[in-house]
Amino acid sequence: MSTPVDIILKRNQLSITDSRKKILELFVNNSGALEHADIEKKTGEKFDRVTVYRTLQSFLEKGIIHTIPTSDNSVRYALCKDDCKEGHHHDNHVHFLCNECHTTMCLEDVTIPEVKLPVGFQPAEYQMVVSGTCKECR
Amino acid sequence: MSTPVDIILKRNQLSITDSRKKILELFVNNSGALEHADIEKKTGEKFDRVTVYRTLQSFLEKGIIHTIPTSDNSVRYALCKDDCKEGHHHDNHVHFLCNECHTTMCLEDVTIPEVKLPVGFQPAEYQMVVSGTCKECR
DNA sequence: ATTTCATTTGCAACTTTGTTGCATTTATAA
DNA sequence: TTATAAATGCAACAAAGTTGCAAATGAAAT
């Protein structure tokens, strides 16, 4: 039988391994974004650091997850809602960073507004992160 | 005599030292944002890594520079246009990241548009980064 | 100009984070 | 069940960031 996680892996031509299943499950079951350290903790350091790096890398390449810009030196990943085209996907939603619980989440329903750039600037991608207090913490 | 850089330091109650002068000059003379590694390179590794970290930290605390969100694990800093209030400053402009020359720059004239968040979300700060091709590279 | 004193710097030692090559293990398909 | 390509874990490393402390320096007062 195929679990939801297996289906995602298959659809992206990734072989179904223990680490990929466990790590992808984390994203599916977590509403917020995860960074490398979170994953190591949540899997109980069951997998090698290298494996986690490589797993995240391949999820990223396949468009299963996307990164969220942060002001610090961490890299945060979140599940792409639906299938994103391999390579370039459309991540046109706003991200929210809660200053209380420090969770980063996707606001799938909030579309990034267009902005008028100075002459000569050719936009390709827009990223927007709003920080403040989230629904749960207020 | 006081150079422009000296004035900025004095205004922020920072003693005028060699490293602070040189590093602040980099920001004043560079249009784009700088990360730690850039600063070490551009100063010719004249200053200890620790000094650079501490200098950036104090500039940040005084509101002389601000960070720009990035999707990777780097931290990019740029000069605050005018005096920002110590601690919380208003960095309500859009940032542009060029995919050709990899420069990150402040678009001071482009204000981040407001977005309507789902009920319960209390915004405090907005960040927006547009990537694409800049004025110089097209 | 000289002295004083708090601040800043550089060094050393360390922790954490991320990378690479390679042998072993595992998943998939024949 | 077996063959084989892919994924994993280990080891060794490289890079990034931190901390404590002694020495050097800047600013203010004499």
Amount of beta strand of chain A? 25-35%
- What is the radius of gyration of chain A? 16 Å
Number of domains of chain A: 1
Strand order of the largest sheet of chain A: 1-3-2
Give the H and E element order of chain A: HHEHHEEEEE
Predict the CATH topology of chain A.
Arc Repressor Mutant, subunit A
Sum up the overall morphology of chain A in one term: globular
Question: In oligomeric terms, what are we looking at?
Answer: homodimer
The largest sheet of chain A is:
3 strands, antiparallel
- CATH evolutionary superfamily of chain A: Winged helix-like DNA-binding domain superfamily/Winged helix DNA-binding domain
Report how far the terminal alpha carbons of chain A are from each other: 42 Å
Number of strands of chain A: 6
The whole-number mean of residue pLDDT values of chain A reads 93
Query: What is the CATH C level class of chain A, in words?
Result: Mainly Alpha
Estimate percent helicity of chain A: 25-40%
CATH architecture of chain A: Orthogonal Bundle
